[in-house]
Design brief:
mainly alpha; 0% strand
């Protein structure tokens, strides 16, 4: 991909933006795993744990990029990306603790961070691979830019997302758009789209971008409606003995 092209910078921006949006839990895991380390080791734990997590993510993303070249797998990847997009916009109903044990030693904390990040990073990896269009250089640059922002600017990112919720909605729409692009690029349907359904080049990305937001809102509305009878049945706070 041409480094001076609009496509390169648009894809790089999408990788950084998506990675920050989807990595909030990873930043929390890093903090939890290192919270009981001595003060003089805490920064080292964050640094080495994050480095291990980045390396694992690069390896996983490379394999996903290669797999997505196989027929039908881009369609599967697009479906997974849609699920990730909806999950981003619809928070879990039971958001308890992350179940992450704090490491008593530096290397125990590093191991915890690396394992937890490997388990939690499937959504990040699929989204990054989709945005990069198979370009490993883009993946490496995007991760190099976004990971320090996540590690050292997680609190600022959290404040911004809480203050401006539309940034999360925009992220979900971006993922839906990417799902549309990679779905119609699958070798199985690409020739047909190019010759007989060229309108899908814009219709699929924009349609899925809007569709993700509408589906997420419908799920949230249904969840709210389901919760109302329970709220009405709950006794007032002042009636407690």
């Amino acid at each position: 991909m041409d480094f001076m092209s609009y496509e390169f910078w648009a894809a790089l921006g999408a990788i950084v933006y998506i990675n920050i949006l989807l990595s909030g839990d990873n930043a929390v895991v890093i903090a939890l795993a290192c919270r009981e380390l001595p003060a003089n080791q805490r920064k080292l734990g964050i640094f080495y744990g994050s480095l291990a997590a980045i390396l694992l993510r690069i390896v996983f993303t490379f394999f996903v990029v290669e797999l997505m070249k196989i027929p039908y797998l881009q369609i599967v990847g697009a479906a997974l990306l849609l699920w990730i997009a909806v999950k981003l916009l619809v928070p879990e109903e039971n958001e308890g603790g992350h179940g992450v044990k704090s490491g008593a030693t530096l290397w125990a904390a590093v191991r915890t961070v690396a394992i937890a990040d490997a388990v939690m990073s499937l959504d990040n990896v699929i989204a990054i691979a989709a945005a990069a269009r198979g370009d490993l250089v883009l993946i490496l640059i995007g991760l190099a830019i976004s990971m320090p922002l996540i590690i050292y600017g997680s609190q600022l990112v959290l404040v911004l997302l809480q203050r401006y919720p539309f940034l999360i909605t925009l992220g979900g729409a971006v993922l839906g758009y990417l799902a549309g692009e990679i779905g119609i690029a699958d070798p199985v349907v690409k020739s047909w789209v190019d010759s007989d359904a060229a309108w899908l080049h814009w219709g699929a990305p924009w349609g899925l971008a809007v569709g993700v937001v509408l589906v997420a809102r419908a799920i949230l509305a249904a969840r709210k409606a389901r919760a109302k009878p329970e709220d009405l049945a709950a006794p007032p706070q002042g009636d407690k003995p």
